[in-house]
Design brief:
Arc Repressor Mutant, subunit A; glutamate-tRNA ligase activity; elongated; 454 residues; three-stranded antiparallel beta sheet; three-stranded parallel beta sheet; binds glutamic acid; alpha/beta
């Protein structure tokens, strides 16, 4: 069976780390199984969906390297939803209702006051044609509910327990008998996600629906929708949701964790992908050389059912670890755009000191830019300048030079190295001086040791 999965965000905002985890798990599974990964824009909410957000979603996915082979948008598929709704009406599974929001609210309050669960009483189902006509004559427009399986005495009883073997959570059951029949068409004729998603998944041949566990109850309803439409249901996998480092749900703080803001903060796409794909799994959180390596590790059985802990500090640390092992070829283009030369020799020298790629600019400045003089021990740095060997320099130059300086000055340890590092780089720490020295070059080294701006 060939695998087809989809990532189905609503373009009502930018993607955040929670969405991206869903997108990634789908993408990695498709990649690993040689299947297709589609982008479906769930934009039936025309008030809140915008093209700008849709564009932002595409940009974020592309930045992460998650390519999709096909894009669909629900707003262009109304005819399909109308056809499916007609079929369900003919099968007696959609029924019209006329209550206003206020009336529904009053019903729920009455049920709660009597100690009953606030489940819709199916009044719409019991209306006679005359009653319906009277309501419409009042100017009311119907909304439509999907009749879930039920044990309602006036109706043919259907089994209410829906079960499936979840790819992540194992055996799952939802008792739809405890749910209200969901509204699938609003009074203004617009469709709701629960329904449109099933029509699309069936028509597009989606084989696996991988999404957050906040959709488990929806799955109970949607399995019944697949059945009612006479379609085969896909396999379902529900991953846990993210919690913050403090152990509390992240849902309210997700806005601040948009992909856009993490990108602006200098997080590498591969660090973000590695982190969001590996948290909440039994695999160690380690930088991955590419997305394929991550896909190679993917397994539903590794995904924990417990919440996945998202810690921005841990992400930053992973970002640094990734940069420390990133080969020059992978960043050459970006370094060039930043106006940084120096090739692999520069990159290999500084990468171990970077937290974000941008940091490379300040090391480039140390090597090729002008530094303010920082002389801590004039006697030592003057001697050091006098002992500088002639060029050409390589990574043995440092050892030879420092050995001579040690003898000539009688200094050793910190008293020897600290003034040199400060004069040469203007900093307390950084890459190995042995590697930096030939990059800085003789004339700049000499000027800096003599306390001249260079
Ligand atoms: N638009 C839905 C959401 O973002 C899609 C859920 C699904 O994958 O079915 O929650």
């Amino acid at each position: 069976m060939s695998v087809t999965v989809r990532f189905a965000p609503s373009p009502t905002g930018r993607l955040h780390v929670g969405n991206i985890r869903t997108a990634l798990l789908n993408w990695l599974f498709a990649r690993q199984s040689g299947g297709a990964f589609w982008l479906r824009l769930d934009d039936t909410d025309t008030q809140r969906s915008t093209e700008e957000f849709a564009e932002g979603i595409r940009r974020d996915l592309e930045w992460l390297g998650l390519r999709w082979s096909r894009e669909e948008r629900q707003s262009l598929r109304t005819d399909r939803y109308v056809a499916a709704a007609e079929l369900l009406k003919a099968r007696g599974r959609l029924y019209s209702c006329y209550e206003s929001e206020d009336e529904l609210d009053r019903k729920r309050k009455r049920q709660l006051a009597r100690g009953l669960p606030p489940i819709y009483d199916r009044a719409g189902l019991k209306l006679t044609d005359t009653e319906r006509a009277a309501l419409e004559a009042e100017g009311r427009k119907p909304h439509w509910r999907f009749r879930l399986a039920n044990s309602d005495a006036d109706l043919a009883p259907l089994p209410t327990i829906v079960s499936w073997n979840d790819l992540i959570r194992g055996d799952q059951t939802v008792d739809v008998g405890s749910l209200s029949d969901p509204v699938v068409i609003r009074a203004d004729g617009s469709f709701l996600y629960t329904f449109t998603s099933v029509v699309d998944d069936a028509e597009f041949g989606v084989t696996h629906v991988i999404r957050g566990e906040d959709h488990v109850t929806n799955t109970g309803v949607q399995v019944q929708l697949f059945e009612a439409l006479g379609k085969e249901q896909p396999a379902f996998g529900h991953h846990s949701l993210l919690i913050g480092a403090d152990g509390h749900a992240l849902s309210k703080r997700l806005g601040a964790l948009s992909i856009e803001s993490l990108r602006e903060a200098g997080i590498e796409p591969l660090a973000l992908a590695s982190y969001t794909a590996l948290i909440g799994t039994s695999d160690p959180i380690e930088p991955q050389p590419n997305l394929d390596a991550l896909a190679g590790r993917f397994a539903f059985s590794k995904i924990s059912t417990g919440p996945a802990r998202f810690d921005p500090e841990e992400l930053k640390a992973l970002n640094a670890r990734l940069l420390h092992v990133t080969p020059y070829a992978a960043v050459a283009g970006r370094l060039e755009e930043m106006g940084i030369g120096g090739g692999a020799a520069f990159w290999d020298t500084v990468r171990g000191n970077l937290s974000v790629l941008e940091d490379a600019a300040s090391w480039w400045q140390v090597i090729g830019g002008e530094l303010a003089p920082q002389i801590e021990d004039r006697e030592l740095t003057d001697k050091a300048a006098a002992l500088l060997p002639a060029e050409p320099w390589d990574d043995t130059t440092w050892d030879t030079w420092v050995a001579a300086l040690k003898t000539a000055s009688g200094r050793k340890g910190r008293a020897l190295f600290h003034p040199l590092r400060l004069a040469l780089t203007g900093r307390e720490d950084g890459p190995e001086l042995k590697q930096l020295l030939p990059l800085i070059g003789r004339s700049r080294t000499e000027a800096r040791l003599l306390g001249r701006a260079a």
